[in-house]
Every structure is written in structure tokens, then in C-alpha cells.
């Protein structure tokens, strides 16, 4: 998807990757005073509002010899002026994609934040994902309706994959006179939200589209982490503990646990590190092979021979090329959201390990396979994620009321900010195997690095190239537009204040 991002350069070299604003296509919009200035809760803070020049630095660890000013994002939080009259706002909330701990908390805090902080009284829930817009499935929301939904898993609005019809959705937004759209979802949902934003802009509508990133895999780029991730890692411990007990209690016992992680292995990696009972962790970012020196089976044999048991944690997206090759199938089917349907690596590993022990070693293998995927994603969020979801919801509210649109929210280096949607959908975040976190895992499990596989992969690529078959390449992220807009630094003095805001990070400003 070719989606330009507005980039603003300060005279001192600071770079701001800006989010769209309603005044970009509706320049004469009236402004209103923020009702938070009379809110007793914010009076205790002593400083109500975030300045337009407050930004958050993307990178805080730099080399002193090569450091520049780097990329910044707009800091999230309430602004002194807002672009919507609260009593006239008609807001709606929609949840898309799969379940994740914390969705109901986000819904609750959007509703309560709009109601109590800004005085908005018309808030609606769109049921069933994007297709709910044109199926006329809506429910009225207020603090009483959502008072205890954060204690439940799932989403009270129901969710679905696919169903995105831009014209029908924006027609419904116009017909129902919605002017604030809060969209909770992952990568595919964000792509849909960006298209909705662009269509609203094309039609000249005063509609703010605000996203809250949702992915239990923690693979949203730029932000520190996704909501629900901490809960997922915590709940995964129960499955790993059960696998460890089963393995310890049997001769030649192996506990095999499959966790979420379609393209990134964050849950598997962090759950492994938290457990300290895992002997091998397999993730999509690290190819592995079964047979031969340095292979998985050799390691399993040595570990079981040494300890009498072992525990393996595997991310669902690990080893997919190996599975497809062994099964003689390319398996390029996708679900309704465009995600590749995965082969079951857990069942495949179970079958191959048992076959090897039975046929090659003539020894019985007691392997217990545990797949807690739906148990993990359906539970309520823990205390940490509940607080995090509150901050995300409030950041989205403040941004929409301030007239920003086509953005998503999240913490960058702990400070919450507004990020252009094209920036987060340009690529997914993956585990960096050259990073110290993966080194810590290797040190904990003592697993091999499966050296030698890279040579095999390179040979396969060269073979494919000679046959004229090359893997599809994702289009690079485009940054096309450079400009300046009101409230942004134009000279050296203002630029220095821009940098100062990002470096000091005043903790008294509500985020």
C-alpha cells in the first residue's frame, strides 16, 4: 500500500513524522476550549495540556559520534483547543480481527473517557467488525453499559475478519453522521482504517479516524509493545508449567507447547525466558532443521539422554517452509484478513519426534502436546495491561478531539504518541536474533543455533533464482511529503524547544 507520510523538518535538523489533521482539508474549522481545564481531576496535575511542539524521539540510544536529531512523533495527550463541540459529537467504536486480552478495557475507557472528560453523550458500538457498519448492527454505549466489561475476556462488540467495503463503510458513516471513529485492530485492520480515512478526506468529511493497535503477537512496529502481550506471556506460563510436570513425570518425557506468533516469536521468547524450564524455543525468525548434525532431533536426543526429559516451546509460525517442503505442499491459502493460513507445526513436530524415537532409537517417547492458543487470547487482561489499555484509549480520545486523524496510538520509549498509520503498516516487528534478548534466551535454554541451515537456505535461493522464481518483495515504506503546519517549529528557537520537549519528557503532563 503506497501511503505517504507527512514529514516536517525543523531548522535545527529535527524530523517530525506527522499525522494528518482535519485542517489539512477543512482549513476554516472553528475551535473550542478544552473542557478538561475545568475538570477537578486534571487540576491536581498542575499542568493540563500538551503543547503542539511536544514530541517523542523514536530513538533514545544513539552513538555519540554519529547521532543526529532523528525521527520524532507527536506526543499524545489533551490539547488546549479542540475541533469538536462535545455535545454534538457522534462517536463509534469497532473491533476487528481476532481476540486479545484487553479489548473490553479499551472499549470501556473510550466510552468513559469521552463521557466524563469531554461530555460526549452519543457513543455507539459497531457490532461484528467492519461489516457491522453497513449491516446496521449498532448498540448505544454509556458508562453504565460498560462498567464491568473489563473483567471479561473477548469483546462485547463481537469481531470478525474481512468484510471491508470502503464505500459502504464511509456511506454508513455519512448516513449515521458519525464524526469520530475508534478502530481497534491489528495490521489488516489498520490498513482498512487508513483507506477509510483517505476516503473521508476525499469526500471532505469532518471525521477523525483513530486507531488502537491490537495484536497479541506484539508485532506492531514502532510502539514499545501491544496491549494483551503481558497477559499472554503470563498465561502461557500455565501451559509451560503443565508441560514441564508432564515431561518430568514420564520416562523419555517431552512437553511440547505451541504458542501464538504467526510471523514473530515474541510470546514464545518472553514466555520461555519467564519460565526457565524450557530447553528449546523455536520461532519464525530462526529457521531450524530436523535431521543431521546440529539439527533439532540430535539436540532432543542429547537433552533427553542427559536429563530424562525436556520442554519445547514453538511459535505457530516457526518452520513453515520446512513443513510445506516435507508435506509437498506450498500451502499459500489466506484467511479473510489476508493472513497466511499456517500448517500445524506442533502436530508435525510431535509426529516426527515420535517417529524418530520409535524407528531409529527403538525407544518409546512420552510426548504431551499442549496448544493453549484460545485459552490465552480469550482471558481478561491482567492489571498491567488494564492500565496500559486505559492510557491507549485516553490518548486516542485526546487526539481525535484535537482534530488529528489517520493515526494510531502507542508508547515510544515509554511516552505515548500519535503515529501515522502508514508508518505502522509499512512492516511488522520481528525478534532481532542479533539482539541481547535472544542471546539471553540461548543462554537460558542452551539450545543450538542450528548453524548450517543458512547455507541450505542460500542454496535454495540460488536454485530458485536460476529457475526464475523469486520471492515477492514488500514495497518499502514511502515518505513523500515534506511541509510545515501551524504550531510546528519554523526557526532555530522553536526547533530547540521541539528537541527539548522530546528530551526532557515532562512527567507532569497527562498522557
UniProtKB/TrEMBL annotation:
Binding locations of ATP: 98, 161-162, 186-189
Modulation of this protein's activity: Allosterically activated by AMP.
Keywords linked to the UniProt accession: Allosteric enzyme, ATP-binding, Cytoplasm, Glycolysis, Kinase, Magnesium, Metal-binding, Nucleotide-binding, Transferase
Pathway(s) annotated for this protein in UniProt: Carbohydrate degradation; glycolysis; D-glyceraldehyde 3-phosphate and glycerone phosphate from D-glucose: step 3/4
Cofactor: Mg(2+)
Keyword Nucleotide-binding in record: yes
Keyword Cytoplasm part of the UniProt annotation: yes
Gene Ontology biological process terms, A to Z: fructose 6-phosphate metabolic process
MF-aspect GO terms: 6-phosphofructokinase activity; ATP binding; metal ion binding
Domain of life: Eukaryota
Feature: compositional bias, Basic and acidic residues: 460-480
Positions of the record's site feature: Important for substrate specificity: 188
Job of this protein: Catalyzes the phosphorylation of D-fructose 6-phosphate to fructose 1,6-bisphosphate by ATP, the first committing step of glycolysis.
Self-association and partners: Homotetramer.
Name used for this protein in its record: ATP-dependent 6-phosphofructokinase
Higher taxonomy: Eukaryota, Viridiplantae, Streptophyta, Embryophyta, Bryophyta
Amino acid at each position: 500500500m503506497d501511503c505517504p507520510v507527512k514529514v516536517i523538518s525543523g531548522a535545527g535538523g529535527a524530523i517530525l513524522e506527522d499525522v494528518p489533521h482535519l485542517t489539512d482539508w477543512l482549513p476554516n474549522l472553528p475551535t473550542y476550549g478544552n473542557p478538561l481545564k475545568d475538570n477537578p481531576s486534571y487540576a491536581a496535575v498542575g499542568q493540563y495540556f500538551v503543547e503542539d511542539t511536544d514530541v517523542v524521539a523514536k530513538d533514545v540510544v544513539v552513538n555519540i559520534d554519529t547521532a543526529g536529531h532523528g525521527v520524532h512523533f507527536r506526543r499524545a495527550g489533551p490539547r488546549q483547543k479542540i475541533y469538536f463541540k462535545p455535545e454534538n459529537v457522534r462517536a463509534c467504536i469497532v473491533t476487528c480481527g481476532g481476540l486479545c486480552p484487553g479489548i473490553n478495557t479499551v472499549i470501556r475507557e473510550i466510552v468513559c473517557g469521552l463521557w466524563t472528560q469531554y461530555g460526549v453523550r452519543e457513543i455507539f458500538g459497531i457490532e461484528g467488525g467492519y461489516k457491522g457498519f453497513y449491516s446496521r448492527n449498532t448498540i448505544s454505549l454509556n458508562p453504565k453499559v460498560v462498567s464491568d466489561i473489563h473483567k471479561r475476556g473477548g469483546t462485547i462488540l463481537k469481531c470478525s475478519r474481512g468484510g471491508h467495503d470502503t464505500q459502504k463503510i464511509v456511506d454508513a458513516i455519512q448516513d449515521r453522521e458519525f464524526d469520530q471513529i475508534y478502530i481497534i485492530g491489528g495490521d489488516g485492520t489498520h490498513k482498512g482504517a487508513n483507506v477509510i480515512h483517505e476516503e473521508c478526506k476525499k469526500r471532505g468529511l469532518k471525521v477523525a479516524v483513530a486507531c488502537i493497535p491490537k495484536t497479541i503477537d506484539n508485532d506492531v512496529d514502532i510502539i514499545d509493545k501491544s496491549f494483551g502481550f503481558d497477559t499472554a506471556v503470563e498465561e502461557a506460563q500455565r501451559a509451560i508449567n503443565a508441560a514441564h510436570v508432564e515431561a518430568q513425570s514420564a520416562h523419555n518425557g517431552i512437553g511440547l507447547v505451541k504458542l501464538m506468533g504467526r510471523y514473530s516469536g515474541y510470546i514464545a521468547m518472553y514466555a520461555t525466558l519467564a519460565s526457565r524450564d524450557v530447553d528449546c524455543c523455536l520461532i519464525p525468525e530462526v529457521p531450524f532443521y530436523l535431521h543431521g548434525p546440529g539439527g533439532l532431533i540430535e539436540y532432543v536426543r542429547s537433552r533427553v539422554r542427559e536429563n530424562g526429559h525436556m520442554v519445547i516451546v514453538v511459535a505457530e509460525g516457526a518452520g513453515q517452509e520446512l513443513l510445506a517442503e516435507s508435506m509437498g505442499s506450498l500451502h499459500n491459502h489466506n484467511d479473510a484478513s489476508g493472513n497466511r493460513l499456517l500448517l500445524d507445526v506442533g502436530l508435525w513436530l510431535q509426529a516426527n519426534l515420535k517417529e524418530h524415537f520409535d524407528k531409529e532409537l527403538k525407544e518409546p517417547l512420552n510426548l504431551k502436546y499442549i496448544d493453549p492458543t484460545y485459552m490465552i487470547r480469550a482471558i481478561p487482561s491482567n492489571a498491567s495491561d488494564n492500565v496500559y489499555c486505559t492510557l491507549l484509549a485516553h490518548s486516542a480520545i485526546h487526539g481525535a478531539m484535537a482534530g488529528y486523524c489517520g493515526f494510531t496510538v502507542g508508547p515510544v520509549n515509554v511516552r505515548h504518541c500519535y503515529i501515522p498509520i502508514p508508518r505502522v503498516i509499512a512492516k511488522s516487528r520481528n525478534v532481532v536474533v542479533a539482539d541481547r534478548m535472544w542471546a539471553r534466551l540461548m543462554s537460558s535454554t542452551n539450545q543450538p543455533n542450528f548453524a548450517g541451515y543458512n547455507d541450505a537456505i542460500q542454496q535454495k535461493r540460488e536454485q530458485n533464482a536460476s529457475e526464475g522464481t523469486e520471492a515477492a518483495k514488500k514495497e518499502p515504506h514511502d515518505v513523500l511529503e515534506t511541509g510545515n503546519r501551524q504550531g510546528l517549529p519554523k526557526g532555530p528557537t522553536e526547533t530547540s524547544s521541539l528537541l527539548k520537549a522530546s528530551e526532557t519528557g515532562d512527567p507532569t503532563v497527562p498522557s
